Amino acid sequence: MPLINKGRSLPNAADLVGIQIELDGEIFDLCQFAIAGYERTLNLRTGLSQRELEVQSKKGRRYKMSFKRFVSMDDLHLIAQKIEITPLDDDCELSFKTGINGRMTNSSVQHFSEGAKRLHDGQFLEAFFTTTESKIEFAVHSVIKTGTDNVKKLICMDRRRIYTVFSAQIEKGRAFSFEKLSSIHTTRDIEFKDVPIAEFREICLNKIRETGKRSFDQLLEKSTEALEEKLWRYCDAKIDSQDNFDQLALRFAVYHLFIMTPAHDSRMSIAAKGLSGEGYKGHVFWDNEIFCYPFFLYEKPDIARELLEYRFLSLPGARKKAQSGGYRGAQYPWESAWIDDGETTPVWGAADIVTGKATKIWSGFKEIHITGCVAYTVDKYYRLTGDIDFMKQCGFRIIFETALFWNSRLECNARLDRYEINDVVGADEYKEGINNNAFTNYMAHNNMKLALRYAELIKDKEYADEYAHLQNEIGLEAIIMETKEKIARFYLPQPNENSIIPQDDTYLSLKNIDLAKYKNAAQVGELFKDYNLEQVKEMQVSKQADVLMALLLLEEQFDKEIMRKNFDYYEPRTLHDSSLSLSSHCILAKKMKDMKLAYQLFKRAAMIDLGPNMKSSDEGIHAASLGGVWNCVVLGFGGLSQKGETLLVEPELPDEWKQISFYFIFRGNRLWFEISKERIKIKNYGSAGIPVCVYGKESILQAGALYSFIIY
Q: Among 294, 283, 297, 293, which Cα is nearest to 363's?
């Protein structure tokens, strides 16, 4: 992960899937050939990507072509392809070349230095590349299998490339197929820790030799079995709906949440664009904890732990971030990459529409609520799983060190005799440099409360070793004393006479404008075609949920009337110019019993990556929005939440849905839900009874039992 513009960038590795095909002397190009038929599919059940097409060349000759590929869920190093070509009008002279192309860049920047290239055993292509910044070696291998001896081939090497050129005669109506199996290994892979470089290279070569003994179909079968076991067996939430798109959107979200998550290595986490594009340079945001995390927490708690271990391992970077601002403790960077990097947010962004100058990106300096979000998620994980081992190894340290940061970040307002948090960017990124942002203050306050609560827990003699260790390492007793003193005078924005919680010290005094043009825009950011950010700062307009985000995450602190009044006030003023916003508003709309709006918001969230806008995912899919789609279905319409050790169940389905069903893990017990408009069925597949409260009625879900609740 090289350094670029004082920030890390996830580099594009060598291209292993590119193939140049020549048919009867004409290079196959969809922009030049006439297309008689085209179908492209992604099978979410198997992970198989497939294109089927019929084309006609400039010479008028027709060909049927099939392209298949997948990345194995059985062996994460493996990429497999299968290509089939059938001439329809006459015999065909086919030529194609493919191999390892190391000429990939990130926005024209090359992040690899070239190493050795070689052909082994007359068939195994090999190339080594090393990242220029982190000095990680990539071992890349490919083998191309044609299944026939009537093919001529020529090995070629060029700068940063090694490839093979094949040529063959194909009979009319007869399909010619070939398979390409490729692998990528790196010296950073956990399995190669402390392995000498020569041994590493030999292991990688031997693995492709073994892989080459198997066919595409055999490898696909193994991958499909692994995907079924790891994901679909228990994570396939189902929607019985008038519109099949809703089911597709949910499965699309679940599939991508799973495949883009580095569950095998807690030194990494989920990038804001997954692995599907260069947007945000592969960096990690609060998207993980607040939007992606619930899926793993309730479906794959083992992966949920891995994701939080990333935050524990990155404490050195968080300490560095705090120290750079003159603060104590651990302040999580707005954008993270390597665990010890600290802040990786770029400093400069797009052009200002008024001044024409580059806009400074203040998020890395002032958007600090992420620290409270990490602590919030640590607590949520522990309350859901009871994993005290994690708390001893990681969780306590995160909670206390982040509380120490807030202690040092608070500013004393002597005139009002209170502590405040000033000069920040809140969840609403359209307001920069504001004071007492509601979401930031509430999340910081919650973080400090958690520190006090967990300090009481570890005072028990059972945790004497942890207490002594933390006292010795970070001065726990002093942290707690300071936290108690400051939290007592910490300012939390309170509802005004109209029950509205001010988003910050000035928001409610700003001017209102007619937002209809921008709220209904087909593209996000339409507001900035008419105004610059300085002008937007003077308007009552929000990019995304802010006060409402606090109401959603800290729901137990607010009564329904406050939630209703604030939802009615802030929702019309929110443009949803962030993909994170729609799912949050959807869940709140459901809680407010506005099912029509809730469903509309769900639909819009689902269409960000699957809708008719072909440009919306140019820089990659929206990981947080995909997490939000699952959250809408299970936590929103499914109505699941937690209070203490009790599972709360208060579902309500939109008119468009007949029924939903899904699995859900609660305190180590796997539960199955089937929810219709008339009935809730719950089966406890776990080994312990689960306290449950269904629409206010409490009971115990005994292990192995199936329960049915009538919805009145």
A: 283
Distance (Å) of CA 537 to CA 350, 504, 531:
17, 12, 10
Q: Name the residue with tokens 């009871």.
A: 386
Strand segments (E) across 194-328: 238-241
Instruction: Give the Å distances, CA to CA, from 71 to 75, 81, 411, 492, 508.
Output: 8, 9, 51, 49, 51
CA distance 461 to 122: 67
Question: d(Cα 182, Cα 558) in Å, to the nearest integer?
Answer: 54
Q: Please report the pLDDT score of residue 711 as a whole number.
A: 87
The residues, ordered by sequence, that sit 6+ positions from 171 with a Cβ below 8 Å of its Cβ are 87, 91
Give the tens place of pLDDT for each residue, 295-352. Answer: 999 999 999 999 999 999 999 999 999 999 999 999 999 999 999 899 999 998 887 7
Of 54, 56, 74, 76, nearest to 66 (Cα)? 54
Q: Which residue type, as a one-letter code, is found at position 153? A: K
The predicted structure's pLDDT at residue 243: 86
> What is d(CA 574, CA 576) in angstroms, rounded to the nearest whole number?
6
Q: Is the separation of the CB atoms in 414 and 331 below 8 Å? A: no
Cα–Cα dist 584/551, whole Å? 10
pLDDT classification of 613: cutoffs 50, 70, 90: confident
For residue range 522-557, what is the model confidence (pLDDT) as tens digits? 788 899 899 988 899 999 999 999 999 999 999 999
The predicted-structure confidence for 403-442, as pLDDT tens digits, reads as follows 999 999 999 999 999 999 999 999 999 999 999 999 999 9
Dist CA 161 CA 384 (whole Å): 50
Mean pLDDT score across all residues of the chain: 95
Residue 454: strand, helix, or coil = helix
Say how many Å lie between the first and final Cα of the chain, rounded: 55
Give the largest CA-CA distance in the chain.
90
Query: Which amino acid, residue 442?
Result: Y
Nearest CA to 126 out of 223, 55, 203 is that of 203
Distance CA(50)–CA(220), nearest Å, equals 13
Q: Exposed, middle or buried: residue 567 (CB in 10 Å: 0-12, 13-18, 19+)?
A: buried
pLDDT of residue 138: 97
Annotated catalytic residues are: 429
Question: What secondary structure letter does DSSP report for 492?
Answer: -
Domain ranges of the chain: 3-208+215-229
- Ranges of beta strands (E only) in 72-160 are 78-87, 92-101, 112-120, 124-131, 137-145, 152-158
CATH topology of domain 3-208+215-229: Beta-galactosidase; Chain A, domain 5 (2.70.98)
Position 567 scores a pLDDT of: 98
Distance separating alpha carbons of residues 400 and 483, to the nearest angstrom = 10
Determine the residue type at 320.
Answer: K
The pLDDT of residue 148 is 80
Average pLDDT of span 644-670: 96
